[in-house]
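Predict structure. Chain length: 354.
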Amino acid sequence: MTSFRAAFTLLTLLAAPAAAGTITLAPVQDSTLHSENGNLANGAGDFFFTGETALGAKRRALIRFDVSSALPAGSTIVSASLVLNMSQTAAGPVDVALHRVLASWGEGASDPTGQEGAGAAALVGDSTWTQRFFPATPWTTPGGDFAAAPSAVHSVDQGPGDTWSSLQMANDVQSWLNAPATNFGWTLIGDETQLITAKRFDSRTHPTLANRPQLVIDFTPPSVPANYCTATPNTTGLPGHLTALNAPVLSSGALQLAASNLPPNTTCTFFFGAERAETPLGNGNLCVTSNLLRLGTAQASAGGVALRNAVYTSAPANAITPFSTWCFQAQYRNVAAGGAGFNQTDGLAVTFLP
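Prediction complete.
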């Protein structure tokens, strides 16, 4: 146990200074889709729009950031926040949902005049309500192809600044870093159920630099896992905490996991999945979702530490591939706390190097 504690302390001291960095990205594309017909666009304007106009026409915005060119491969995304400047509206608070786009799209040279709300004639390469690339590459579904579940929802009122942030957005950005060919950005969809809900946002070509969209990313560098999600205190008075004791490098053979701050001698189950979450479960939160895989159990020591290895050549850890990101958590018995009688550690997002 002495050698374990020394290794645990050393890893904590070494990892903490390099634990996180922050980078702010400007978009490489943005555009507006106009529902009136497939011949209107706004690829080069100073604004983009969401919601519904007074005449019942819908507006949807598209935006994309080049994540993989800005971050080193193998980084782990801790959080992601989209910051926009809402500059004109006749509506009060309106929920605007952010959805991950599922197909590539174009930003052409169309440039509306005036306040830009009516759009302009689409030019070659523009995205429109019916076309991903005008004039002859259609969306599968008019209005854009996007994931049904929103990555984030934010209530936009009178502005000027608005921010979208969620664990699912971090999952989206992580997937774009790990697989750049799947990065088609997000679409912003406002309230399309009633008139006069439209919101105008400043675009990437707006003359005021401070008003342009930003994607703020917190990340850890390659081989440094990132903790996330809220762990609630157990009968020790502390929240359970999950740590990797070695770098997540597949050639090392295994990822050594340690769950600490547990009730002494309790049974602990380690598991992992494809995406981050924060959903109430038991006396705490489930921090992992999508394709959950069970690593097995271990008993915590008298000092409240349970250890488990994820061996890359054995199931289920053989599902882990280079430059993939998986999210780990441990669940443990805590009968003395009452309630459900069990709790969970925080989550640990890990991006694996070859």
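Summary: DSSP finds two helices and 26 strands in the chain.
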